[in-house]
Amino acid sequence: MLKWERYPERYKGGVKWLSIEEAKQWLREMDRRGFVHSLMLFGTRFIAGICNCDYPICDALTMRLDHGFNMLKGHYVAMVDYDLCNGCGVCVQRCQFGALKMNVTQDRANIDQMRCFGCGLCETACPRKAISLVERMTIPALKEVW
Ligand code: SF4
Ligand code: SF4
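Above: the input record for the complex with iron/sulfur cluster. Below: its predicted structure, written as tokens.
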């Protein structure tokens, strides 16, 4: 950010500094709108940025989903509690990764965990709190699926 301030011509709209609380509120607002959060590391071990974007506008998501490289999945995967799910379908429209579909036979949401990126958009939208995120590493079949 300090570097960017030196080159105002590249950021004509200016740069706004956020407090931690403002940043959290902004992330919640992005979630409400249905944007996928992703961390940008730029080849380092540190978080250089938090991006909120959507497919197919986002280059990183498009490169991954259409061409299979550039972006890793999250550390969590989503899981549905069939006792709580009522089959409303709200979550299906939120998933940008093709991981959520309706199980028509049982009238419940079905998550393909191999496709899930752990973005959490389905979890926050579910009116029945039927979706939870679990750590990828706790599921043997998924812990190497990035
Ligand atoms: S939003 Fe929740 S209740 Fe509705 S289908 Fe999805 S998991 Fe089920
Ligand atoms: S957490 Fe997984 S299933 Fe839910 S919206 Fe994100 S990618 Fe889709």
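Notes for the reader.
The radius of gyration is 17 Å.
Residues 78, 94-95, 97, 99-100, 111, 116-122 surround iron/sulfur cluster (ligand 2) (CB under 6 Å).
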